[in-house]
Design brief:
Length: 415
């Protein structure tokens, strides 16, 4: 068999929808300047799909810092991997400032968040160790564990009672193997907006010997005092052993970092293959990240505005009777009754008739019979944007209840 015979888009779990969906439902092209209003297929839409939480992606000061750094350094400098020829004082400065910001002793830069998490897990555990993780772990965590040749145990999302059972199983194994236990959780779960139950997890350290790695991609810059992270929000910063954050959300950039005590970070610095064998983060991205971090520290009004919009959106949706799950963060899921076909119709209706662009999730990501509209409020949005969206969702809910989308399909002879 020729390997390429099976490498066809229709054989991909998602790619089988490409023929009907690409360009509209999948791989849509949002155009124009980053912000709450962008163009899609020639029309302006109210955009709730960007993780640009603090509005830094198109902030004039950030854009100037990026442009000035690119003009001074170009996109190539420094050339080579950090270990060989790609190390600069600015990389070190950013690491030191990040560590202080998230209340850790040391930090190390990562070229990409996803790639970084995979490499952290690969470097930290061997065949003698056991990984225990939440069932709603992000794909980067799952991929990292695919490289782990030892045991791994999953517990139902935020089920602390079951987590303890998995820690008991892991302890029995490591008592024999001589390995350790790594527990992986998230600070903010990006699909539902719920928080990892960090206080309850930390409390289990009194009974079991394990270390905690937290993926706080969505919590860094948005949660806790000054946006210092979900571990600060819960006041357990000292008990979180390894902290992982990315620049792709609140920093509106590329890259990430891992932070912890100096011994662990130094080990990772010399052990993460994805960083040892990869080109250093380019200087404009480093200088740009320094500017973004400075703005998070010195412009508290950005975080305040974000939460003004978040609170208005979530209160308005709840008051209108919508189910937004257990979100405790910026991520705002709106859970509606409906199927896959309804989801397609809702997406089209929102975009074409109400000019609202948001992410829509359906089975198998969520249970059958459910549509999840994921709203991402940002500091760039307005209270008027919030009110318009809530009123629109009321109309969408009415149409779903009255099966109007189903009737539209029947009128078009769509089965």
């Amino acid at each position: 068999m020729d390997l390429f015979d099976k490498l066809k888009v229709e054989n991909s779990a998602i790619g089988k929808f490409a023929a009907d969906s690409e360009g509209y439902y999948l791989f849509p092209k949002l155009e124009g300047q980053l912000g709450p209003r962008m163009n899609f297929l020639g029309k302006e839409r109210l955009n709730w799909s960007l993780n640009n939480y603090l509005g830094l992606g198109n902030h004039p000061e950030v854009r100037k810092a990026d442009a000035d750094a690119a003009k001074e350094w170009g996109m190539a400098y420094p050339m080579g991997a950090r270990m060989l020829s790609g190390h600069t004082k600015y990389h070190e400065q950013l690491e030191n400032e990040l560590a202080a910001f998230v209340k850790k002793e040391s930090a190390y830069l990562l070229n990409y968040g996803y790639q970084g998490m995979v490499s952290i897990i690969d470097a930290m555990v061997d065949r003698h160790d056991v990984v225990v993780y939440d069932s709603e772990a992000h794909a980067c965590i799952i991929d990292g564990m695919r490289l782990h040749i030892g045991k791994r145990f999953v517990y139902p999302h935020n089920d602390i009672e079951n987590l303890e059972k998995q820690l008991q199983r892991a302890t029995k194994l490591t008592d024999v193997s001589g390995g350790g236990i790594l527990l992986i959780t998230e600070g903010v779960y990006g699909m539902t907006g719920g928080l990892g139950h960090l206080k309850d997890i930390v409390a289990l350290k009194k009974k079991y010997n394990f270390r905690i790695l937290i993926d706080d991609a969505h919590g860094f810059g948005t949660m806790g005092e000054g946006g210092r992270g979900t571990h600060v929000h819960y006041d357990v910063a000292d008990e979180i052993d390894v902290y992982f954050g990315t620049f792709a959300k609140s920093m509106a950039g590329i890259g990430g970092f891992v932070a912890g005590n100096a011994q662990v970070v130094q080990y990772l610095k010399y052990s993460m293959r994805s960083q040892i064998y990869a080109k250093s983060l380019p200087m404009p991205m480093v200088i740009g990240a320094l500017k973004r971090l400075d703005m998070i520290r010195t412009r508290p009004e950005l975080l305040k505005k974000l939460w003004t919009i978040v609170n208005a959106m979530q209160k308005g949706l709840r008051d209108a009777g919508f189910n937004i799950g257990q979100t405790e963060s910026m991520v705002t899921p709106v859970i509606l009754a409906g199927g896959v076909t309804d989801a397609t119709q809702v997406t089209y209706d929102l975009r074409e008739n109400y000019n609202i662009f948001c992410s829509i999730v359906t089975y198998p990501v969520v249970p059958k019979g459910i549509i999840l509209l994921r709203i991402i409020p940002t500091a760039d949005h307005s209270l008027e944007n919030v009110e318009y969206t809530i009123q629109t969702f009321k109309e969408i809910q009415r149409k779903l209840t009255n099966k109007e989308y189903d009737n539209e399909l029947k009128s078009m002879n769509v089965k």
